[in-house]
Fold this sequence. Notes:
Layout: H1 3-25, H2 28-32, E1 35-43, E2 49-50, H3 51-63, E3 72-85, E4 88-99, E5 102-116, E6 119-132, H4 137-148
Parallel strand pairs: 1-6
Antiparallel strand pairs: 1-2, 3-4, 4-5, 5-6
Helix pairs in contact: 3-4
Amino acid sequence: MESWEVAAREGIRDLVARYNSYGDAGRIDQQVALFAPDAVLEIVGQPVCRGPEEIRSLFSSAMGSGAEIQLIRHHVSTHQIDFESRDQATGRSYFAVYTEAGLDHWGRYLDAYRVIDGAWRFGARKVEVEGQVAGGWAERTSARLASEG
């Protein structure tokens, strides 16, 4: 493995970690800044978001009033990264989300990454929820977002 690839892998891993930690902390502006200006975010079953304002709106809506949950933690595993070039890559990973009630939902991320102004950013992220706890935060949030849409 060449040194540029080691650095790129760490940059992409940091991008994915920041996405989840910023989201868990409600730091929406920092989370949105991780996306390219023309990025696409798709959560299967919800309208596709294009660009920072639509992505910000989705994140803000998902946060709701903030009173719904006291704790949310995203955990990512089995992160595979494949390079198309030195400044473009794709990735796949699994996620599990916990709230104060325990496991809430799980699935996988399918990503396209690219370098913008020297930093790795999401060009596209597809979120596939593969399972969720009945009556949990994800189920309630999906229903609320669908009714707002």
